[in-house]
Amino acid sequence: MPLTDTAVRGAKPADKPQKLFDGNGLFLYVAPSGTKSWRLKYRFQGREKLLTLGTYPQLSLKEAREACAAAKKQLGGGIDPSVQKKVIARAWENTFEAIAREWHENKKSAWTERYAGDMLERIASNIFPYLGNRPINEITPPELLSVLRKIEARGAFYQANRLRESCSLVFRYAIATGRAERDTAADLRGALKSHVTTSRAAITEPEEVGGLLRAIDGYTGHFVTKCGLQLLALTFLRPGEVRLGEWSEIDLDEKLWRIPAKRMKMRLDHLVPLSAQACAVLEELRELTGRGRLMFPGLRAKERPISDATFIAALRRMGFEKDEMCAHGFRSMASTILNEQGYPADAIEKQLAHNPRNKIRGIYNRAEYLPERRKMMQDWADYLEKLRNS
Questions:
Q1: Partner of 262 at 20 to 30 A CA spacing, among 77, 112, 158, 388?
Q2: How many domains does the chain have?
Q3: Which residues make Cβ contacts (< 8 Å) with residue 35, sequence separation at least 6?
Q4: What residues form DSSP beta bridges with 41?
Q5: How far is 106 from 163, CA to CA, in rounded Å?
Q6: Strands 256-259 and 250-251
Q7: Domain assignment of residue 51, given as a range
């Protein structure tokens, strides 16, 4: 008798594998582990063969019968369905989507979970619908450009350029694994509209810097926010690196802030020399938040940090407009002034945690320029103190 949905759903595993036949060679294989799979027994050129159609419940009884009928049709045309399945699988392995997913799987361990998810989502939603099923070695520059133009048409020029770069990485991976001969995306350099970047607003004139520091000293909002602004000025750190800080990262005896790679933009551990002034701010802050894990906990939920808008809101509250100063502007302020004062560019870049020119060297020498940076950071703090008091 043919199987029913109820019989398939209710099939229980036993000590030995079970076969529940439906007809036309189709049967449900129930493994001792409980896994259920649809299989087709057939003969081709006088030999008995077996084809796995899929697993239940992913493949329903109705769908399994349809797959069985399709296989029988192939047999009627002199085609071995097992061989055809392998041909289709090999063809899929060479498509842009299959290779992109494989590339992503190999790379994602080096990324944060959020970045990895965003990367795949961008490619899946913008590229796969148009080129996902195409053999990667057959995709031409005009084809890829046509897809990227659709993104440009939305005004998303930055995203279009980023996706071209991501596609280039996929093509290069395909070349390395023997499934493509050239990087099609590389041929599109200069073909897309440029994304016009605007510099982050920053105060760099010494007199105005002094006014900013005095405004922070007189800030009447939350004390934790005030300390955060002071540390932004003293450390060159990104706002997110400050507000997500944990007390376990701070060593006041050694005057160091050790930030783990997982919290850094470049995914490298970062050592931040602390000036005497920075240590004084941290000592005050520790009296208020030192019993918890976070240095900058939120007002309502102590296990969650202050929001990413906190520092910006504080600057606006003090009267600094968005085209005048932003939270990231403290980095530009320090970089501009210290470069003008003749401090070593490499030490400044290292303190800013920018990607090192020699990445391998950067990975194995996290303390690079530490003596120079210790001196520079104390000089910087003394300079800010002088401006504030002038």
A1: 158
A2: 3
A3: 55
A4: 50
A5: 18
A6: antiparallel
A7: 5-79
* CA distance linking residue 184 with residue 136, whole number of Å: 9
Domain end, chosen from 142, 157, 188, is at 188
Residues in the chain: 390
Would you say residue 170 has pLDDT above 90?
Answer: yes
Residues 145-163 have a mean pLDDT of: 88
CB of 281 closer than 8 Å to CB of 320? no
Mean pLDDT value of segment 136-140:
93
Phi, psi of 384 (to 5 degrees): -65, -40
Question: Which amino acid would we find at residue 20?
Answer: L
Residue 197 falls within a domain, yes or no? no
Same domain, 10 and 155: no
pLDDT tens readout for residues 12-70: 999 999 999 998 899 999 999 999 999 999 988 888 999 888 889 988 999 999 999 99
pLDDT value of position 116:
84
Instruction: Just list the catalytic residues.
Output: 238, 265, 328, 331, 354, 364
Q: What is the pLDDT of residues 248-264, one digit of tens each?
A: 999 999 999 998 888 88
C-alpha to C-alpha distance for 379 and 228, rounded to whole angstroms: 20
Report yes or no on whether pTM surpasses 0.70.
Answer: no
The pLDDT value given to residue 156: 81
Query: Residue 74's domain is classified under what CATH number?
Result: 3.30.160.390
Q: Reading across the β-sheet that carries 270-273, which strands appear in turn?
A: 250-251, 256-259, 270-273
> For the residues 83-112, what does the mean pLDDT come to?
84
Same domain? For 107 and 60 the reply is: no
